[in-house]
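Encode chain A's predicted structure.
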Amino acid sequence: MIAAVAAAIALFFALWWMLVVGGDEAPWVPAGLAASVVLLVALSAREVVMRRAWTRYLLENSVPEGGARVGSDKPNSSKKTHSTSLHDATLATIQKLSAEAETASSADSHLDVFHLCQNYLERTEDALRANNLSPEKRNALRMGQERVRGLEKHHLLTWARDSSRILTHDAQKRVRVSDKIETANRAVECLDSALKIFPDEYELNESKLAIMEFIASVKVAHWVELAERAAFKGHYRRAIDRYKDALFYLERESVNEDVRTAGAERIGREIEILRVRLKSTNTTPE
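Encoded structure for chain A:
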């Protein structure tokens, strides 16, 4: 925070001096706004770091360490109570972060909650295997696990859905074919990571199929465009080869059967037209 304050002050005076030199009538207004933005970003970052550090502390200390029993049962009982209270505090933290993730603009916040849920489930499972909890505490942990399992699934699916949607929209805006395909493949990777845990999720499988069809359409459209350019320039043999490349990707990639059939028929007609033109060109006397 000291570094952030120093940077904000330096930015304020630097912008103020530049605006004064530039003849601005109120140089302190934009300079003050810029410095305020720096401080707000620093405060937000500090809040995120502190919150994650606290959650990590709760997770790392939620399971009692193994060791020899001390002379009386009182310390052991105190340790159990402390461990259970940490589990309860961790559960409360997860629920709080879950609610915050629902209103956050970043899809990564859902992934953070998913990882916290995984850690909670692992540590509570270790605590249940220790056989040193009362039936009431054991039931409370199991109820907490059920709630966290629901949150775990919800946040992983939400992250995969939102991240893949953002990446797909980004891919559609790209100009270069390679950039389109690379960005779309990143969207598929997001869905695959969720499908490894929940392979039967219908929505994830449908989204993956749609993105794969988009990738196939990009590849096919690229080769069709090259073929049309070659045909326009009179390079009929090259155009036929490009159309064959388009057919290759159309057959190879994951595409709806109706789309594949319609695309293959259209490309086939174009190839036949080019073959006729090529034949007429070759038979035309010099």
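The chain is about 85% helix and 0% strand.
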